Known about the structure:
This protein has twelve helices and eight strands. By secondary structure, the protein is an alpha/beta fold. The chain has an eight-stranded mixed beta sheet, with helices on both faces. Strand 7 and strand 8 form a beta hairpin. The radius of gyration is 19 Å and the shape is globular. The two termini are 35 Å apart.
Amino acid sequence: MSSPKQAASIDARFIGGHRACAGCGFPIAIKEVLSSTKDPVVVVNATGCMEVTSTIFPYSSWKTPFLHNAFENSAATCSGIEGAYQSLKKQGKMDKNIKFVAFGGDGGTYDIGLQSLSGAMERGHDMMYVCYNNDAYMNTGVQRSSATPYGANATTSPVGKVIQGKQQFPKDLTEIMVAHNIPYVAQASVGMWPDATKKFEKAFSITGPKYVGIYAPCIPGWGFDTSQTIKLAKLAVETCFWPVYEVENGKYKITYKPKDKLPVEAFFKGQVRFKHLMNNTEVLEKIQKYTDERWARLQMMEDATNK
């Protein structure tokens, strides 16, 4: 149990004054991560909304050691810092227990930074990579990424007479990370605080590379009212469009199973990016089938790895 002084120190690691949109998902994700350990934390952040809105010179909302690097190398930079730390410990020049976290959006993680992330995980660095997934390149104009859902309207996969939004299903980066055989991989949602912080606490307690993808709704990119962020983040889970689960040493565990699984349409409603699909039964059925198959596979993996 932390003391009031410790709690205040942890809460002050990321403070107000940033320029993120009202109701933005990623400041919630940052709070969930940084409040999940009492140890000192070094943060590395790829270029993107998170970095741009929180470090406008000469101001910063980060009250913990913070390094901004290029779009593509957040994981590589963090692994280098962690390597230097391990060297200092071996030399007897450092005795603090320090945690290392690299942040990146889906553009800087699923796409541009994938090689950097894969290398850091394969080398076994004692660090956590957190992808705040808002389903597109939001900072540069809502261009589609490989995390963008099928059918979603984006500036580089626009809705028109010929094409109805993005024509590919999203890359399953969580399972790609599982294939790296690292100690801990998880999916979380900013709308489920206790579930998310339990995962971050567990990740911080594990030695070795960890990856957590957290779903973080984007107001201008998705097109919804600022009051609906948490509701949508929860609906993504209730529809199993973004299931929350963890894979610890190869064993799957679904950390929340909806009692009454909702159709994906319940998550899509109220989002401008999916407005064109509300009367498109064919596409909705295709997305529902894909979502149901992924959910069934996830349950199968949970059963198979826990026998």
